[in-house]
Design goal:
- The longest helix is centred in the last third of the chain and has 27 residues.
- The strands form 2 sheets. The protein has a two-stranded antiparallel sheet with strand order 1-4. Strands 2-3 form a two-stranded antiparallel ribbon.
- By secondary structure, the chain is mostly helical.
- The two termini are 29 Å apart.
- The chain contains 13 helices and 4 strands.
Length: 337
């Protein structure tokens, strides 16, 4: 009796495909970083700096909603608080830019903590409406507060110098200053999401009742995420105040919250680089239609509607889903070979 052995029909393609798919995000991040380093020599630096500030604000919303499951319409309160405090610290207290930014982030964190005390036990649309109402309250406080100068705002905010010799009045120096904070902010978000703390937050988002039954302090985790998101939004707001050298009520109005939501959704909720893609799309459209008489907010609204109706996963989410689908098809074809 002769025993025959069939040759192994399993190829190494799935393994190779898996390796490539795992390396692709890292390659993309490196390419994005290299592009960011050389971009100011080929594009308008001011536009790129605005993009990075907006990306940080959207990353904050993405952290809170995409990973924490808390829909907030009150991000303008965090952005405006940081912008006013950082601007006041730089102009009236003559502090260094870094100290001004730290104070702005601290102010935003405190506002986030106060929001959490009121809203953290609510979920869904109730949480969203409470944050919107609280943000409007903060707006009227800034309107009446003497140090904000009402509708005139804080103007001619000095950018100052860093380490005594890096003059932020220079566009390139300011660009790399903002880039450093942007990279640090996104690295922090990435590390937090992929830490044990972040995994618990995601578990709470997916099934809050189960997380509670496992003994986790759900409200404590949610409050911590809200405060961290507020601090990151504050970082974007403080940098924006130094960039534009002005802090006004526009930073605290509900339209600022709306813009953050649009940027995050267009880029892709729950994706790490989605806020960057969304900011690039929105800032690019703002620049493209700047010379026209067509309202920019209408353009942003149309883009938002297109994302919701046509590709709900956003730019990055749709691309990632397409790559995953292609990888899965390649794996199935290899198994069938």
């Amino acid at each position: 009796m002769t025993t025959t052995f069939e040759p192994n029909t399993i190829t190494t393609t799935p393994k190779r495909t898996t390796t490539i798919s795992r390396r692709l995000p890292a390659v993309g991040v490196v390419a994005l970083l290299i592009l960011a380093l050389v971009a100011p020599y080929y594009f308008y630096p001011f536009l790129l700096m605005k993009l990075m500030c907006m990306a940080l604000m959207a990353a904050s919303f993405n952290l809170l909603f995409g990973y924490g499951g808390m829909l907030s319409f009150g991000h303008a309160a965090f952005i405006g608080s940081a912008a006013y405090i950082a601007g006041y610290a730089a102009k009236e207290m003559h502090l260094s830019p870094i100290l001004a930014i730290i104070l702005g982030m601290a102010a935003a964190t405190v506002v986030g903590w106060l929001f959490g005390l009121v809203a953290i036990r609510r979920r869904g649309i109730q949480f969203a409406m409470i944050t919107l109402a609280l943000a409007q309250l903060v707006y009227f406080i800034f309107l009446q507060a003497p140090f904000t100068h009402g509708e005139d705002g804080l103007q001619d905010i000095p950018r100052g110098t860093v380490l005594g010799f890096l003059n932020l009045g220079n566009s390139l120096t300011m660009y790399y200053f903002i880039l450093a904070f942007t990279v640090a902010g996104f690295l922090f978000v990435y590390r937090m999401v992929n830490s044990p703390f972040g995994q618990v937050v995601i578990a709470i988002r997916d099934n809050e009742a189960r997380a509670t039954s496992l003994g986790y302090n759900v409200h404590g985790y949610k409050l911590a995420v809200l405060m961290i998101a507020a601090a990151i939004a504050g970082l974007g707001g403080a940098l924006k105040a130094l960039l534009f050298q002005i802090a006004t009520l526009n930073d605290a109005t509900y339209l600022a919250s709306t813009e953050v939501v649009i940027v995050a959704v267009v880029g892709g909720i729950g994706t790490m680089v989605g806020p960057i893609a969304g900011a690039a799309a929105v800032v690019g459209l703002d620049w493209f239609f700047a010379e026209s008489e067509f309202p920019v907010m209408v353009i942003n609204g149309l883009v938002f509607m297109a994302c919701v109706l046509l590709f709900r996963q956003g730019i990055v989410g749709t691309i990632a889903a397409a790559f995953e689908k292609r990888r899965a098809q390649g794996t199935e074809e290899s198994k069938d070979a």
